């Protein structure tokens, strides 16, 4: 955490979760500093830039001006790369978290990316939140997150579809609410499970991620999304079926956005 701070911290300054300056003194960050998500899109790029700014590399006393401004997607990718390099299986997961203080938004579950690493002794995935570990508005261990604390999109989307939860409870950093933000997270999470962590700017080639298209999806099209979500609820058990969708379903596999 000493190597990065989030764009929201940069904008807010030394208030809120950073009132004690645990992420650094934002007054020492140059006025022209902006988020670097679109530039440092791979673990290699992030590490190279860390070493370029301070040749000591992964150090805890890094000056504010030498830290990276990254969102959770990028921190989780770097975390996965570090654990994998040590022989520990690790994957990135996209979903929603309700354990942050969202100010005047009230109680919402906002889009967030985390990690899971494989504990060979317990024979299960351990869910961890490295990026959000210093900003919790709840009491639990962020390096062993209990079931139910993180809203995986498959569970949440199916809960909305069965009218068990209000869709407006789910929010994303773009200011959107409702089922579509869960679909975006489901699409990201599916790609993460296939070891293909895509950027925020990409969506499915079938345009399901476009609000005016999503709002008009037929029940048949929605059921296709439901079927994917059901499989993702137990991704290990259903991995072969998920791979089959990955290898055959153009709408869920091919991307659209930018030059694509």
Please characterize this protein's 3D structure.
This protein has 9 helices and 9 strands. 32% of the residues are buried. Helix 4 (153-161) runs antiparallel to helix 5 and helix 4 packs antiparallel against helix 7 (219-232). It folds into 2 domains: 1-70, no CATH class; 71-256, no CATH class. The protein starts with a strand and ends with a strand. It is α/β, with parallel strands linked by helices and 260 residues long.
For the residues shown, what is the average pLDDT? 94
**Into which percentage range does the β-strand content fall?**
5-15%
Helical percentage: 25-40%
Low-confidence stretches: none
Number of helices: 9
Structural class: alpha/beta
In whole angstroms, the N-to-C terminal distance is 33 Å
Number of strands: 9
Envelope shape: globular
**Strand and helix order:** EHHEHEEEEHEHEHHHHE
Report the radius of gyration as a whole number of Å: 19 Å
Total number of distinct structural domains: 2
Major sheet description: 5 strands, mixed
């Amino acid at each position: 955490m000493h190597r990065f701070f989030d764009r929201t911290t940069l904008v807010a300054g030394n208030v809120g979760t950073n009132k004690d300056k645990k992420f650094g003194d934002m007054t020492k960050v140059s006025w022209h500093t902006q988020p670097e998500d679109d530039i440092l899109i791979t673990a290699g790029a992030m590490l190279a830039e860390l070493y370029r700014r301070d040749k000591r590399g992964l150090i805890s006393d890094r000056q504010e001006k030498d830290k990276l401004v990254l969102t959770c997607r990028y921190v989780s990718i770097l975390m996965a790369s570090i654990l994998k390099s040590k022989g520990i299986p690790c994957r990135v997961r996209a979903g929603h978290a309700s354990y942050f203080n969202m100010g005047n938004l009230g109680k919402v579950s906002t889009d967030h990316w985390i990690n899971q690493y494989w504990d060979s002794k317990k024979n299960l995935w351990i869910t961890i939140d490295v990026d959000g570990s210093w900003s919790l508005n709840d009491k639990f261990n962020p390096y062993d997150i209990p079931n139910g604390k993180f809203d995986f999109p498959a569970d949440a989307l199916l809960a909305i579809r069965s009218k068990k939860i209000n869709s407006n409870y789910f929010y994303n950093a773009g200011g959107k609410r409702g089922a579509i933000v869960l679909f975006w997270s489901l699409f990201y999470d599916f790609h993460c499970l296939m070891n293909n962590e895509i950027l925020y700017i990409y969506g499915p080639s079938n345009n399901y991620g476009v609000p005016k298209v999503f709002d008009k999806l037929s029940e048949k099209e929605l059921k296709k999304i439901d079927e994917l979500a059901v499989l993702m609820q137990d991704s290990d058990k259903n991995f072969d079926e998920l791979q089959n969708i990955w290898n055959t379903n153009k709408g869920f596999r091919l991307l659209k956005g930018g030059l694509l």
